[in-house]
Specification:
Blueprint: E1 4-9, H1 14-26, E2 31-35, H2 41-44, E3 49-52, H3 58-67, E4 69-75, H4 81-86, H5 88-113, E5 117-124, H6 133-139, E6 141-142, H7 153-170, E7 184-191, E8 193-195, H8 208-218, E9 222-224, E10 234-236, H9 237-248, E11 259-261, H10 269-279, E12 285-287, H11 291-297, E13 303-304, H12 307-313, H13 321-338
Parallel strand pairs: 1-2, 1-4, 2-3, 4-5, 5-7, 6-13, 7-11, 8-10, 9-12
Helix pairs in contact: 1-9, 3-5, 5-7, 8-10, 8-13
The structure holds 2-amino-3-ketobutyric acid (AKB).
């Protein structure tokens, strides 16, 4: 009999680093990974089988389907917002076509082994689109159903994939003679900017925050590409991984939404600079606005209402801004750059 396994796509990315370690420590099921690049050797030891390739490679997904009984998918593979603006068609192919193929894969797995497949999907605050800075300042905390007018290819991709996942979960082939929907248990959350000590960000527009921290730790000067007053929600990576695992283990009947807001703190870029300078007094951090990237960040909310996540599945971040730096980022990053 094939054993149930967990599939993680994009396992070598920012979220994947933290998730793999935590899953290996707490989930007895073997971990299968799929990533464009070979995994960091430190992660490979957690993995039962590593596939190197693309999420749009139908033949590769078929091989996984034949060989393994997947009953949980963490679909992390994606091109982030800045990178997607330089290759929007590629972003659509990876972010949307890739997700559609993984949903179809999950559906076929569920039909094959007869159990629902849990499909965990990291969405983003990029699914929101505020029209101007005045509106952003006025509206304050926004709920999931407000301002769903993304202005980036990545944000459009993420919003559409939330809808795709909900379709597979509730309406898939709704005209078929026999009911075949309800086999994919799709759950997602809209992550804010994520701050990781273990990985350096790649291709995001919220990357100014982690880039600033890592540059200071390396002793490199950093030119921040957004205005000092720029404010969006952020979260420490351990809280992001905990939130994914918490939503994954929540009783299905408790969930009232397919996509949840989550966040922890929402400092301005200048407030981040100040806390980084306290940790790295010699750091050289200046500001030079990249107007085009600034325009994107200005459409993202200053803060989000995460009450639905707190009510439905007990979301509650461990790290506020100060603790994120003192207890996680600074010690982790110092260790990274001392090695
Ligand atoms: C990005 O900047 O593209 C991501 C995000 C906010 O989802 N970090």
């Amino acid at each position: 009999m094939r054993k149930p396994v967990v599939l993680i796509t994009g396992a070598g990315g920012e979220i994947g680093h933290g998730l793999l370690t935590r899953l290996a420590a707490q989930d007895p099921r073997p971990l299968i990974t799929l990533d464009l690049n070979p995994l960091d050797r430190r992660l490979a030891g957690h993995v039962h089988r590593e596939f190197t390739g693309s999420v749009v490679d139908e033949g590769l997904l078929e091989r996984i389907l034949v060989e393994f009984e997947v009953d949980c998918v963490f679909h992390l593979a994606a091109l982030l917002s800045t990178r997607s603006e330089f290759a929007p068609a590629t972003a659509h192919e990876v972010n949307v076509e890739g997700t559609l193929r993984l949903l179809e894969f999950a559906q076929r797995e569920a039909e094959s082994h007869g159990r629902p497949v849990l499909f965990m999907y990291p969405s983003s605050i990029a699914t929101y689109g505020l029209p101007d800075q005045e509106t952003k300042a006025r509206v304050g905390k926004i709920r999931e159903e407000q301002w769903n007018t993304p202005v980036t290819m990545y944000g459009c991709n993420k919003l559409y994939c939330e809808l795709l996942g909900t379709y597979y979960a509730r309406r898939y082939k709704q005209l078929a003679a026999e009911k075949v929907s309800g086999k994919v248990d799709f759950r997602s959350m809209r992550f804010p900017g994520l701050l990781s000590g273990e990985t350096v960000p790649s291709g995001g527009t919220s990357d100014y925050a982690p880039e600033m921290i890592h540059a200071a730790a390396r002793g490199d000067a950093y030119v921040c590409f957004v205005r000092p007053d720029t404010r969006i929600p952020f979260m420490a990576m351990p809280d992001a991984v905990s939130a994914l695992l918490q939503l994954a283990s929540a009783p299905r009947e408790r969930l009232t939404r397919s996509a949840y807001n989550v966040a922890a703190f929402n400092p301005s870029a200048d407030e981040i600079r100040a806390i980084v300078l306290r940790a790295f007094p010699g750091a050289c951090i200046t500001f030079q606005t990249d107007r085009k990237r600034q325009d994107i960040v200005d459409t993202w909310p200053a803060e989000v209402d995460d009450s639905a996540a707190r009510r439905d599945w007990g979301f509650g971040p461990k790290y506020d801004l100060e603790r994120a730096f003192s207890d996680y980022l600074i010690p982790t990053i110092r260790k990274r750059y001392q090695q």
